[in-house]
Amino acid sequence: MAIRIYVSRDAAAQALGADETAAALLAAAGADIELVRVGSRGMVWLEPLVEVTDAAGQRIAYGPVMAEQVTELLGAGLLQAAAHPLRLGRVEDMPYFAKQERLTFARVGIIDPVSVDEYVAHGGYEGLKRALTLDGATIVQEVTDSGLRGRGGAAFPTGIKWKTVLQQQTAQKYVVCNADEGDSGTFSDRMLMEGDPLCLVEGMTIAGVAVGATQGFIYLRSEYPHAQVALEQAIAAARSRGYLGRDVCGSGKAFDLEVRMGAGAYICGEETSLLESLEGNRAEVRYRPPLPAIKGLFGQPTVINNVISLASVPVILQRGAAHYRDFGMGRSRGTLPIQLAGNLLHGGLVEKAFGVTLRELLYDFGGGSASGRPIRAVQVGGPLGAYIPESQFDTPLDYEAFTAIGALVGHGGIVAFDDTVDMAHMARYAMEFCAAESCGKCTPCRIGSTRGVELMDRIIDGKEGQGGIDQLTDLCETMQHGSLCGLGGMTPFPVMSAVKHFAADFARKR
Q: Which of these CATH numbers, 3.20.20.70, 3.40.50.11540, 3.40.50.10490, 3.90.79.10, describes 116-324?
């Protein structure tokens, strides 16, 4: 009987040599093994990670395993899960993994991502089956009671969005997934779509059943070709098994999905700009009202959520709102897939309940800086997130707690910097990023960011005194309160946090 071996097909793992390792395994032991390509377990520093099923049916991990090490490993007893310097044991027993609470990512790295049979065997589609026994209002109430909030920038309660769409009396409604994951240091959407795409498909189907939508679209960033392949394979598999189409699971309810590719514009992460792009128009932010829930895609009521929001729905319907709500703190309920990036020894993905502190994430999971130097600052929530100093590392990951310190959780991406970083240059980058990515529709964002870059250059060149900092503060206030969307409105967060917490870096320029 062939021995099952698991190797990741995740894009990050492929970049580190997983395809070559998989090919070497097949070449050396093809007749003796069944090779399964799975998602990543999230421990990127151990990729390519190889897991082999031992005699007791447990999966034993080895890593990182490069292609040139395969022959030696096989000779040392890899197929028997023998002892070896690269042997890590069960992933579930490793401290990095054991301390997590995996709800949304429960299957990632475990199953063949596009196998409906494996998805169902690991609890998949239980949420949809339950949803099909309920009316739309009950499903929406379940999502509302769970406390699920948007896992993007605004953290808006998901149930309220869905309820607004449900209440609209129109013949056509849509469900749109914002998969334009463009924030620096974020990759949880990509990992979910590559490692468990059927979870997203199921979540969108439940949303469609709940609000009466019959068509869904996944707006995927062009830089994610591996996710595109996985999603399209998963959608085709779900459709062939009756989980999508005109008669979902024999319920008489229709819902279908398709993937639409973006063209590389960061602004399309803003939901109304995304809708414009999806309609084939120039990607510009819409004025609101009306809200997309009332007049969204093609002028019809539209549920629009990001990947992690929608992928959190199946477990809520499967296990009940109370089970999900029991994780977290305050008004931040459930879990968040947190992405550790930047100058960290152990970069990767951690799924934890809200309430874990930045210090725990950076040191207990991230292992401290890769350089061995003190971590001076972290940026949470992408390029528009505030720079948080070491004095605030004990802040719990919680929407309201972060708001209290002038920061945002956003998509849960954390980028770490050691004490060699120049925060004046980092603040300038935020302005430059906004200037490059602005859709140009509103003056505060379009002109303010350009003037901001010029002003920052003068400050860095030592041509501005305190008056330059005062002018920068005024400019940021104008952008924050006058911009049409979050791009211009949130660019002041990293700029002013750098000025506030790292004033010495600006003083050195004068």
A: 3.40.50.11540
pTM of the model: 0.94
Task: At 168, list the tokens.
Answer: 């609209």
Residues with Cβ within 8 Å of residue 20, at least 6 apart in sequence: 48, 66, 67
Domains 327-418 and 423-507 share a fold: no
Q: Is 406 left (phi over 0), alpha (psi -120 to 50) or beta?
A: left
| Tokens matching residue 306 | 């990001």
Structure token pair of residue 187: 């990759």
- The domain limits of the chain are 3-93, 116-324, 327-418, 423-507
d(CA 29, CA 74): 8
Q: Which pair of tokens denotes residue 414?
A: 């954390």
Phi, psi (deg, nearest 5) at residue 279: -80, -5
Query: What is the fold, at CATH topology level, of the domain defined by 3-93?
Result: Glutaredoxin (3.40.30)
CB 333 within 8 A of CB 147: yes
Provide the token pair at 246.
């005109």
Residue-wise pLDDT for 266-303, tens only, equals 888 889 999 999 999 998 899 889 999 999 999 999 99
Rounded CA gap, 439 and 284, in Å?
A: 6
Beta strands in 279-362 (DSSP E): 302-306, 328-329, 332-333, 335-342, 348-353
DSSP 367: -
Model confidence over 17-37: pLDDT tens digits?
A: 999 999 999 999 888 899 999
Pairing of strands 174-179, 302-306: parallel
Cα→Cα distances 307→31, 56, 177, 230, 315, Å: 38, 36, 6, 14, 14
Q: Which two tokens stand for residue 17?
A: 């040599």
Identify the three-state secondary structure at position 80.
Answer: helix
Q: Count of alpha carbons within 13 Å of 143, Cβ hemisphere only?
A: 33
Give the Cα-Cα-Cα angle 441, 225, 248 (nearest 5 degrees): 90
Write down the architecture of domain 327-418 according to CATH: Roll (3.10)
Residue 30 contacts by C-beta under 8 Å, 6 or more apart in sequence? none
